[in-house]
């Protein structure tokens, strides 16, 4: 009787243990506690690369590690392709600590960026960045990272140059940097909303004076230069900072689908429709069928004690955060969820599409912004810049993660087959 009771109890404990194990997350899933509550875990586990221990590697989940090695940054502020507003040390920042942090994923090693290798893999190709001015930040970072591998000599300007001779300054159209030795162009197209934005002329539009309509975000129409994006070997899109009430409805810009102007549509629905337009465009274009398509997640700003226009500041920040202090919070978590779902949908059709998730690592870097060290000529008392990034700086790591994803998907093999 005693033995049978012991056997039954043991059996019950075994079943219970198996049930508990069944409820535990798979070893291949990232530890949920390492993700902020507002950031959904990766939607498609297949998009992550394998680490050395055989588990999926999520480059977005990690910590910043101090590294004073001289080669942490592959270029300096002397890079001639940098916007003056991103050269923080030249603009008066007294410390360079923001340059000496590397990103360490929790479960794997992030490959070091090899500019010569990236240039060779991209030979006879095009790398295209599309988005707002923070996308421009990332584009300038990539250009300078690649240019650091081009021998500096008297002929350097002939080796790397803007295709149409445009000056390298803040630009409202597009820029294309040519790496002549590799027959490669690295391009930037300004598209803050990622879809078409029409501006109405007050003198010619009757609704402007009566209803305050100054423009329309056309949610079902791609920008005019979208045909230039198609055919890129690597296409990196971003948006987000213009999708708010202040820069749309409050500025007199409403949403339009077809010929119908909608003054009541909310931001979230408008954003969803714009992403659907991008998805439809990508899937319908034969020229995009072999592209490596990336849509970068939201890059958090770090204004405290007010917003950008009412005295918000990030001055005095010198080190990354080590805990999830919510500068970013939940305000734009829905954007990342929609972007991830869209890229997953494109990938389900056999395309090489990825959600380039940099939000968490970027939220931890309030020290990386220009703050008050803005470009020469900025009026005294102008708002601090706690949205863009000092270069060299945080966007270099975004490009390092981009490079790691390309390595994992045989980017060089596809280029060689062409």
Describe this structure in words.
The chain is 28% helix and 16% strand. The protein is of the alpha/beta class and 418 residues long. The protein has one domain: 3-Layer(aba) Sandwich (Rossmann fold), CATH 3.40.50.1110. A hairpin with a 4-residue loop joins strand 7 and strand 8 (184-190). Residues 1-48 and 204-210 have low confidence and may be disordered. Its main location: Golgi. It comes from Miscanthus lutarioriparius. One of its GO terms (molecular function) is xylan O-acetyltransferase activity.
CATH homology superfamily name: SGNH hydrolase
- Strand elements, count: 15
Low-pLDDT sequence parts: 1-48, 204-210
Instruction: Describe the strand arrangement of the main beta sheet, using strand numbers.
Output: 6-7-8-5-11-14-15
What portion of residues is helical?
A: 25-40%
In percent, how much strand structure appears in the residues?
15-25%
Major sheet summary line: 7 strands, mixed
Keywords, please?
418 residues, alpha/beta, Rossmann fold, globular, disordered N terminus
Write the layout of secondary structure elements.
Blueprint: H1 2-23, E1 49-50, E2 56-57, E3 62-66, E4 101-105, H2 115-121, E5 126-131, H3 133-147, H4 156-159, E6 160-162, E7 174-179, E8 184-190, E9 196-199, H5 206-211, E10 215-218, H6 226-229, E11 234-237, E12 253-257, E13 260-262, H7 267-284, E14 292-296, H8 333-347, E15 352-356, H9 359-363, H10 394-408, H11 411-417
Parallel strand pairs: 5-8, 5-11, 10-12, 11-14, 14-15
Antiparallel strand pairs: 1-2, 3-4, 6-7, 7-8, 9-10, 12-13
